[in-house]
């Protein structure tokens, strides 16, 4: 994989953390101990998107991280082994699993902490007449993949897949880009779509009405680069139906929260966010629409950030 690298340096030009992917890859190729700067990667995949040779740089960095034992990584491992989730659950949903072709998978942050997002998604699915089930969720494995624990990540994913099989599920609807990306990359049994793509396919636009507020949009890295850039066009089209949409400069630039960086080094995460926060302040929108729970937490420190599912559900008068 790293042998395909031609050392053009494009990856270093686009990295929000100003890493040197070339140095990291060369160091790995020389079989030296991984360099600590591998911890600073947000796994935004900007380097992979820019690489002319298709080198899987992010995956190489994730593999290096298994070498490091940091407090942040230890917290992730402890939470998953103790609670089956990457965070300490603040109240656990009580799903009522039933045989169904569609399942909604909320993910750790949305399911156990930001439950207003999962409530908005489920109410909107009901509004659109979509029958769905929910399982007793365990972490999908995304946070574990980010720290190089691919073995444990697969175990966690399999606990969810087993439940989907038993219920006859064919399609999994997600609201977390990390979950979406993981379910698309690490299994092939089930169709997977983020709720935005489902809203688009069910043509939710006609049910939306214009309201007097200005909104901008943050592109989640895993949704924009790992899944599909079209999904963010869907998000923009939905916003244009509901309000005055003002594009954010460098909307695709990482907010700094991903790849375990926020948990491992909150100072770095906030430093990486500064440029994004400054851009938002210049626009002065009433709300920053997001489609990622991690982006929501990160950007809420500097602005009013709302998941797009909440804005849609509120527009449809499904929630207050």
UniProtKB/TrEMBL annotation:
Which GO molecular function entries does the Swiss-Prot or TrEMBL record give? 4 iron, 4 sulfur cluster binding; metal ion binding; oxidoreductase activity
* 4Fe-4S ferredoxin-type domain mapped to chain residues: 1-27, 32-61
Top-rank taxon, per record: Archaea
- Gene3D superfamilies named among the record's database cross-references: Alpha-helical ferredoxin
Q: Which family does it belong to?
A: Belongs to the HdrC family.
Q: Does the keyword Iron-sulfur apply?
A: yes
Q: Which UniProt keywords apply?
A: 4Fe-4S, Iron, Iron-sulfur, Metal-binding, Oxidoreductase
Q: What is the name of this protein?
A: CoB--CoM heterodisulfide reductase iron-sulfur subunit D
Cellular component terms (Gene Ontology): plasma membrane
């Amino acid at each position: 994989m790293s042998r395909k690298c031609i050392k053009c340096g494009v990856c270093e030009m686009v990295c929000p953390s100003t890493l040197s992917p070339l140095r990291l890859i060369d160091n790995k190729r020389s079989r030296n101990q991984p360099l600590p700067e591998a911890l600073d990667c947000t796994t935004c995949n900007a380097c992979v998107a820019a690489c002319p040779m298709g080198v899987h740089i992010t995956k190489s960095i994730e593999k290096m991280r298994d070498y490091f034992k940091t407090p942040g990584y230890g917290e992730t491992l402890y939470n998953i082994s103790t609670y089956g989730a990457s965070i300490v659950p603040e109240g656990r949903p009580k799903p009522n699993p039933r045989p169904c072709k569609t399942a909604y998978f909320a993910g750790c942050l949305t399911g156990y902490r930001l439950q207003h997002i999962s409530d908005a998604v489920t109410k909107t699915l009901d509004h659109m007449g979509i029958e769905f089930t929910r399982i007793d969720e365990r972490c999908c494995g995304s946070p574990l993949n980010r720290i190089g624990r691919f073995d444990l990540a697969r175990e966690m994913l399999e606990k969810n897949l087993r439940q989907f099989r038993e219920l006859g599920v064919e399609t999994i609807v997600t609201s977390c880009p990390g979950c979406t990306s993981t379910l698309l990359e690490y299994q092939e049994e089930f169709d997977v779509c983020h709720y935005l793509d489902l809203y688009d396919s069910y043509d939710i636009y006609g049910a939306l009405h214009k309201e007097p507020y200005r909104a901008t949009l943050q592109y989640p890295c895993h949704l924009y680069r790992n899944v599909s850039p079209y999904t963010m066009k869907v998000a923009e089209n939905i916003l244009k139906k509901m309000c005055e949409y003002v594009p954010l400069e460098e909307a695709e630039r990482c907010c700094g929260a991903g790849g375990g960086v926020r948990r491992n080094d909150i100072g770095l995460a906030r430093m990486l966010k500064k440029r994004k926060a400054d851009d938002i302040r210049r626009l002065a929108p009433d709300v920053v629409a997001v489609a990622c729970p991690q982006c929501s937490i990160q950007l809420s420190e500097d602005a009013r950030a709302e998941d797009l599912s909440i804005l849609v559900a509120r527009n449809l008068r499904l929630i207050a």
